[in-house]
Specification:
71% helix; mainly alpha; 0% strand
């Protein structure tokens, strides 16, 4: 079976980073997911209004639903961890959805990314208390 052609690998190969692109495909796709999340957060945060429009309404429902779900499970003290848990949720969601697009690889398909994510998820509450 041939190695699939990933768009990011082709772009990095064109600028001279061929060895890194082919060896660490999951890292480059993780960077892409982080870039997507940062740019979308900046774009959506720029247009926040007191009377929400379509996009802001969707994200307020999404974040409000996640927060209510977490508070039901953890109680009111769980609100402290909500920004961290929501960030992990959105990262994993976008990582898995990007793997559905032909020419892209899901960063969570490699064992390193979920293991490091779980390590940080385990160690952060230990640090906070």
């Amino acid at each position: 079976m041939e190695h699939p052609i990933f768009f990011i690998d082709s772009i990095l190969s064109a600028i001279g980073l061929e060895h890194f692109a082919h060896k660490f495909t999951f890292v480059t796709h993780t960077w892409l997911v982080m870039l997507i999340l940062i740019v979308s957060a900046l774009l959506f945060a720029r247009g926040v209004q007191l009377l929400p429009k379509k996009g802001q309404n969707f994200f307020e429902i999404l974040i409000g639903g996640l927060e209510n779900f977490m508070v039901e499970i953890t109680g009111p003290e769980g609100r402290f961890f909500f920004p961290y848990i929501a960030t992990i949720f959105l990262f994993i969601l976008v990582s898995n959805l990007i793997g559905l697009i032909p020419g892209f690889n899901s960063p969570t398909a490699n064992l390193y990314d979920p293991c490091l994510s779980h390590l940080f998820i385990y160690l952060n509450p230990c640090y906070w208390y």
